[in-house]
Every structure is written in structure tokens, then in C-alpha cells.
Amino acid sequence: MEPTGLMLPGGFNPDRDPVPGEASTTPPIVWGPRDHSQIPFPANRSSRKSGLLTFCFRFRSRLPVAMATSRLGVGETLGALNAALGPGGPVWLKETRARHLRARDFLAPRRALQARFGDGQVPERVVHAVAGLQGPGVAPVLRCAPTPAGLALQLQRSAVFERVLGAVAAYAAPAVSASPGPRVILHCPALRGAPCALRLSQLRAVLVADHLSRALHTHGVSVRLVPAVRDPHMLTFLQQLRVDWSAASERAATEALRSSAFAKLTPANDRGALPLGVLGRVCLKELVEERGRTAGYDPNLDNCLVTEDLLSVLAELQEAVQHSPEDSSLGLAAAPDAHADSCMVVHVVSCEEEFQQQKLDLLWWKLDDQAPLRQKHLVCGPVKVAGAPDTLTAPEYYELRHAQVCKASALKHGRDLAQDPAWTETFGVLAVASIKFEMLSTAPQSQLLLALADSSISTKGTKSGTFVMYNCARLATLFEGYKRNMEQGLYPIFPAVSSLDFSLLQDEGEWLLLFNSVLPFPDLLSQTAALACTAPGLHITARTEMVCKFLVQLSMDFSSYYNRVHILGEPRPHLFDQMFARLQLLRAVRKVLHTGLAMLGLPPLSHI
């Protein structure tokens, strides 16, 4: 039987696909006005050896003006590509590795297409649809070609460079949702103690809560932080860590909760000998059964000892739900009829605190009819330290990292700069960067293993926060070098972006930076702020590790490119066009890097 569509070739070797710009052994077939009803494709290795034709479908028409001005998006492009294949689950993948990006930008894998269409035959209409793909946010397509790996798609790279680098600010910040969702109360019980008692697992919960708060704020979500920190030493420590948390406020009134508690306490003759300071005991067993153990509550939850401190905690949470103040930084305010159903409470706790927090949840529902129905637990996994006692506290950990940063700087510069006021803030930022990248680069629910050796804060180690800050400083040095040479008359003033020739960006490292870092950054920010508000069960997950991992990979790609390519070339007019195109690309990289660091509460450094 004659095939009715495109038959994907066998024997795939993704690294042998044709590379744009290289001479091809066989000319591509370009769609013309003639109708091609059937396109047979050799399906085995023997036919491939005898000479495999490459079929490429090109799309070069200009996009409508409105479409050309919209921000391109990886999500929008993938959505359009999958829709072009017809009904079914997602098939297309975005390539990220340099060796694959030499030949393609997106791939519909061979096996996935075989499962979708059978016998590896892709209908001609599908290839037409993919080759002519366009729409709001969809990147312009250059060619769509069947390869041994599957259906490969390459974008019009010069056009993508022009669209993205002509509107850098749009790609360095997320689009704030018109409907940001419910108000969020972020509750981090670890902040009720003193810093000297803060364990590393609790420090992890604090940093996760702070990062999540910044991500939600960026997307226009109204966030309230609980508790308001009252210990002045804790406030000072949080400032050292560059954690943005609310300070002390008046204590919330507990009278209503106390009255409700007394009404539901175990009768006096059944209380037995209660510890000093305990008002009484409340049975939670019925609530556990009502909520269902499948929701994630510990089956061992039974009685809860009610104290004034516990009622004070509940009163502060109750006040946060009922009275969400205006957010002066965003101009957001709770609606006049805001109530418990319009918000979600997320308790960010260490694994050691989870059992006690479950008790608190159930007690809140027991004592307050207006308690929010949506209470979720973001439980941070344990923190283990290699070769160190489990008693290491958060302040001790900070002092250790700070001392290591100072020591590394002394070795680099040949003198001790720890007492130099000009370096004081830099060393503090580097110490905090080391801590935050260590604590946040692993998914919060997973166990974290810390290595405290000096090598873990080296600028040569590609996984560390100091490595990211080092590359941030390299970018600052690069642009300072251009500015200095421009002021000396060696380079001209930076021209209008609209006049730049982005077709001169031919190095694979340049496309890697744009396609893997600048273009997908808004999607990354959206994923970081995503919370499953309506998901069943008690527990919730967050992708707070994504920004750190992204910034590390961005720094690795930039470092590789910067070490290999001379950006600021000789002051010769025929070299300026390429230099300015490269500088504009690195402007976008710098903007994305600074925005990512701000999501972690870290300022960019100009020297290190």
C-alpha cells in the first residue's frame, strides 16, 4: 500500500541532522503551488544509505503587525505546535542541549509520532500546518523537516533575535495575570523563636517562604506574611539574610478564641493533671476522621493541649485572613467582602514541625467557624550536613560561610579585605548568595545534603551562588569597559536597537543564551509562582528550586561564551555592527540575571 503521508526515516542519529548554514548533500524540496498528495519517505537504514532526501518546508512570510509586536513565548509556541498535530496529548519538546540546537529548536520525537499516527506516517496536512505556524506569541518558523529522530523544527533565528532583543524588558519580567487568584497567607512558624535556636531545616523553610512570597508578589498576588516578627535579634538576622518579612505589630485579640476553646474543652473531671499553663485539652479525633486520613493528616493526631501561646498564634492567623491590608508596593487591596473562602493559607514548615502544625490546623477549624477551608502544608525536607554535627544553627552556618568568603577573597587579592568598608556589603551578599543557592537549588520537599568545605563557595565551582555572582560582576565589568572606551572616543554611542543587525549573531553560544535563557524566562517565573490552590489533600508543592537552577545554567552558558568570544573587539568600524548586536544580547542576559537575583533578594554585584 502506498503511504499517505510522511514516513519518518529509521536509524536515528540526532547529531547527524543537517546544520543550518552548511552545504547539504541534497537540495531541500520547498513547497510551491503544486499540490503534493503523497510524499513517500524511506523507512529503513538500507534506503538511508542509498541516499536520503531531506524534505524541508519553509515559511518566510511576514507576520501581521499586531502579531509581530506581541511577546514570543515558549509555552505559546509549544501549544501551537501540539495543536497542529491534532487531538491528543503533548508531543513536541523544546531542545536545550547545544549539540541538538545546531540542527533544530523543537522536536516531535519519532516514537511519539508513531504512537499518534501509526507506522511513523505524518499526514501531509500536519506538516503544512506546522510549517506555516503562526499566532500570538508563536515564534516564526523557518523549516520543518522529518529526521531520524522525529519531526524537527527550526525557527527563523534572526527574526527571533530581533523580536526578543528589541523588547528586552518584556522578557525580563512575567506578565502579571489579570486574575491572580486568591489571596495567600504565608505562615512560617519557625520565625516565632530566636535565631540562636533556628535549625537548618527551619532556615530552609524561612528561605522557601521568602522566595515564594517574592514570586507571588511578582505575579500580582496579594500576600500576607505571618507571623510578624517580634524578636529584635531575629529581625537583625533576617536583614543579614536579605529576607523581606514583616516586623512586629500589635498582638491579635484572643478573647473570642478563648471563649470558644473553653466551650469545647474536655470536662474538668476528665482533664486529669494538666501541665502548668495549659488551659485544657481538645479532642481532634473526630476532625481527623471527618477530614479523612487520605487528605494527609497523621492518624496519630488525637488530643491537643490548648495554651495561651497557641491561641495567640491562631488569633494572628485569624486576623490575617479577616483583615488583609492594602499592599502599598502593588496597590492591591482585599475586596470589601473578602472572607476566608477568598484566601488560601500556606503553612511553610520543616518536616520536624509538621505534626504540630497539623494539630494547629485542626484546632483552628474546631474553634473558628470562619477558618479558611483551604489550608495547605508546604513541608520542607530535612537538612543533613556532611561531616558536621546536627546541632549547627542557622547563625553559625551564616558565620561559617561569611568567614569562608572573606578567606577566599584574601587568597584572590593577596590581602585581607574583611575590614575594608567598601567590601563589607559585598562579602555579606556573597555569603547570603552561597546560603540561598545551597538551600533553594533542591526541591523543597526533598532531603538536602550540605557540604561545608571551603571549595563549595569557590567562583570556579559552577553550582555555587558565588559562581553566579562572579558572572554577574563579569557582565558589569564588560559594560563598564564599553562605557569607558566610548567615553574615550574609541567606540561610538550605542545605536538605536531597531538599527542593529541581528543576523550577525551566528555563534551557537549566542542562540543558546537567547533560546535557553532570555526567551523562556517569563514562563519560568510563572512556574515558580504556581500553587495548586484547588488540589485535593493537605500537602502542596512549590517549584522554588527553578530560579536557582536557571541562574546557575545561565551563568555556565554565559561563562562559556564569554571565555570563547571576544565581545569588545578592536575599535574598527567594520566590527562595530557585530559588537553592538552582541552587547544587546548580553544586555538582555544581564537584565534576566538581575531579575532572577531579585527574586532571591540578592542585589547584583559589580565586583567580587
UniProtKB/TrEMBL annotation:
One of its GO terms (biological process) is tRNA C3-cytosine methylation. Residues 468-608 form the DALR anticodon binding domain. Pfam families: DALR_1. Residues 1-35 are annotated as: Disordered. Transmembrane segments: none annotated. GO terms for molecular function: arginine-tRNA ligase activity; ATP binding; tRNA binding. This is DALR anticodon binding domain containing 3. InterPro entries: DALR_anticod-bd, DALRD3, tRNAsynth_Ia_anticodon-bd. PANTHER family: DALR ANTICODON-BINDING DOMAIN-CONTAINING PROTEIN 3, DALRD3 PROTEIN. The gene is DALRD3.
